[in-house]
Automatic annotation (TrEMBL):
Stretches assigned to the Amine oxidase domain: 76-549
Any one of the GO CC terms: chloroplast thylakoid
Cofactor: FAD
Sequence ranges of Polar residues compositional bias: 1-18
EC number(s) per entry: 1.3.3.4
UniProt lineage: Eukaryota, Viridiplantae, Chlorophyta, Mamiellophyceae, Mamiellales
Region (Disordered): 1-64
Single GO BP term: protoporphyrinogen IX biosynthetic process
Function as written in the Swiss-Prot or TrEMBL entry: Catalyzes the 6-electron oxidation of protoporphyrinogen-IX to form protoporphyrin-IX.
Pathway(s): Porphyrin-containing compound metabolism; protoporphyrin-IX biosynthesis; protoporphyrin-IX from protoporphyrinogen-IX: step 1/1
Protein known as: Protoporphyrinogen oxidase
First-level EC class: oxidoreductase
Length: 559
């Protein structure tokens, strides 16, 4: 039997205003009530049979017997896996353990009765995986989609310029200069230097080579800040933009454009062969999604469906062991005292630096690899202004004041510290998230190239984003805004930097040496494995459910 001592930190620093604390308590009560209202065993699934077995001696030791699967982490990754496992096989005996007093992980929607705001992710790309999961969980009516015509702006030379939505606007618009357009166009059709054999390129190298330096600076660099809060000179093209980087060699001849055409053709063919689930809402243009009341509605809904018999809040994993008969034995500190649970399989969806502690004594070398994944700090700062505070140059004005559009991104070269600003009041106008005479914006600040952000307190963060908003969207002399919610994430988003996949493979290989691979029942999930986007975490979590069920099935057949 090998052993490890578990974790005490969850890696995020709560730094919210009192209002947030009040709403968090309310939300916890709501989650608890929701969890407990879902049946005596807590589950809304029809349980045909239970495969768990607990011996009397286990019970004496305060053990909960043997589970089929324990999923550690109640973020979107873990809950997607858990919900899908139960949907596919109601009789599998699973448990989701979450260290916090609420589910959602990074997904943190706050509601103080006057404002609803996001402290973590603000929206998701409405891919079919998320929409289907929401429909399966009976939450179709909760899906909200932003106006698909919303513009995304990028700051360049003091002006906010709308990102081109299609090829004609890219060619005719002023987003790129004519030399920049010609370089990007020629590169896209394949007239560019080929990739150096065997080299892993950074996002900066990949885009500059394919589309030119100007397209990189104006188009892609701000997205690296916006999505990863990352450094494009460090992010790996293959790991961070996998679906785009493969396009270069996908088409009938090398180049992003022929690759994109082929991908489009394949996508259309696939759609014909597998017609879309008719329950899913139609997605128009380049919209983004949320849920009524905020993104956290989804994890809360999934947890409610699973019930309190399955989802355990405030369960802190303190020890992971492997038993001689190949089971995993997890020891937790819980509100009801210490508990030990055995399982045939485990899915770890905690952040990599937490997994490092989790596996340290069963696989000390693997723990060293997990420690190497980098999560820079990011602060989310939500503020509200009077609607007439905004200058509306270059945008269509709302009759009642405020801004139209998805939001704006700030390339690092433009000397604006805030990474990007989301126009929350416009995006979710129908969801009543802010008083009607105010306009709420969400700013993200910090990231891999501004780790000093951690030194600022809440008021300084508000002042910093306000100073930047004065440079771009506010009328001069606009007074400081109302502080709605501020949160410092000291370890925010895993960076898919050069060597990311190699590091993950290395960690998995070292786990395998200690009989802790997928073949032994240990599955790794979460955003540093799946990809950072909310939708990608859901997609991966759903797929992982099948892998775990297959493992259990195989095990059952070999016993
Ligand atoms: C500030 C910020 C803004 C973002 N913006 C966007 C966006 O707009 N759109 C988008 O698509 N994505 C965005 N993302 C990324 C996205 O939110 C995440 O990648 C995704 O939510 C991760 O989900 P997860 O379940 O993999 O991990 P997490 O949400 O980290 O969940 C892991 C869970 O494990 C729990 N845990 C940790 N330790 C233990 C333990 N010992 N025992 C039990 N449980 C434990 C944690 O409490 C947590 O609940 C953003 C992320 C951040 C931080």
């Amino acid at each position: 039997m090998t052993m490890t001592t578990g974790i005490s930190s969850i890696g995020t620093k709560k730094n919210s205003i009192n209002r947030a604390k009040v709403s968090s308590t309310r939300r916890t009560r709501r989650v608890r009530a929701a969890l407990s209202s879902s049946g005596s065993k807590g589950s809304n699934f029809v349980v045909r049979a239970s495969s768990s077995s607990s011996s009397p001696s286990d019970d004496e030791n305060n053990s909960l017997g043997i589970k089929d699967t324990i999923i550690v982490g109640g973020g979107v990754s873990g809950l997607s896996t858990a919900f899908t496992m139960k949907s596919k096989n109601a009789s599998c005996d699973i448990m989701v353990t979450e260290i916090r007093d609420r589910v959602g992980g990074n997904v943190t929607s706050k509601n103080d009765g006057q404002y609803i705001w996001e402290e973590g992710p603000n929206s998701y790309q409405p891919g079919d995986a998320v929409l289907k999961l929401a429909c399966d969980a009976g939450m179709k009516e909760d899906i909200v989609l932003a106006n698909p015509d919303s513009d995304r702006y990028v700051l360049w030379d003091g002006e906010l310029r709308a990102l081109p939505k299609d090829i004609p606007t890219a060619v005719l618009g002023d987003f790129l200069t004519w030399p920049g357009k010609i370089r990007a166009g020629l590169g896209a059709v394949g007239i560019r230097m080929p990739k150096e054999e065997g080299k892993e390129e950074t996002v900066k190298e990949f885009v500059s080579r394919n589309l030119g330096e100007e397209a990189f600076q104006r188009l892609i660099e701000p997205f690296c800040s916006g999505v990863y809060a990352g450094d494009p000179a460090m992010l790996s093209a293959e790991a961070a933009t996998g679906r785009v980087s493969v396009l270069e060699n996908k088409g009938p001849w090398p180049g992003l454009f022929p690759g994109a055409l082929k991908a489009q053709y394949e996508g259309a063919k696939k759609k014909k062969e597998n017609p879309r689930d008719p329950r899913l809402p139609v997605i128009e243009g380049q919209t983004v999604g949320s849920f009524k009341g905020g993104l956290q509605t989804l994890p809360e809904g999934l947890a409610k469906q699973l019930g309190e018999g399955i989802v355990k809040l405030q369960w802190k994993l303190i020890k992971t062991e492997k038993t001689e008969d190949g089971l995993f034995s997890l020891t937790y500190e819980t509100p009801e005292g210490e508990k030990k649970v055995k399982a045939k399989s485990v899915v770890f969806t905690q952040p990599a630096y937490v997994v490092a502690d989790t596996v340290r004594s069963i696989a000390p070398e693997a723990a060293k690899s997990f420690e190497k994944f980098y999560y820079p700090p990011v602060a989310s700062v939500t503020v509200a202004y009077k609607r007439d505070a905004f200058k509306l140059d270059g945008r269509s004005a709302l009759p009642e004041g405020g801004l139209t559009g998805f939001g704006q991104l700030h390339p690092r070269t433009q000397k604006v510290r805030t990474l990007g600003t989301i126009y929350s009041s416009y995006l979710w106008a129908d969801d009543g998230r802010c008083p009607k005479d105010e306009f709420m914006i969400l700013n993200y600040i910090g990231g891999a190239r501004d780790v000093e952000i951690q030194k600022l307190n809440e008021d300084e963060l508000v002042q910093a984003v306000h100073a930047d908003a004065l440079k771009t969207i506010l009328k001069p002399d606009t007074p400081l805004p109302k502080k709605v919610g501020v949160r410092m994430w000291s370890k925010a988003i895993p960076q898919f930097n050069l060597g990311h996949w190699k590091l993950l493979d290395e960690a998995k290989e070292l786990l395998k040496k200690e009989k802790c691979s997928e073949e032994d029942g240990l599955f790794l999930g979460g955003n540093y494995v799946a990809g950072v986007a909310f939708g990608r975490c859901v997609e991966y979590g759903v797929d992982q459910a099948s892998d775990v069920l297959n493992f259990l099935d195989k095990q059952r057949r070999t016993v």
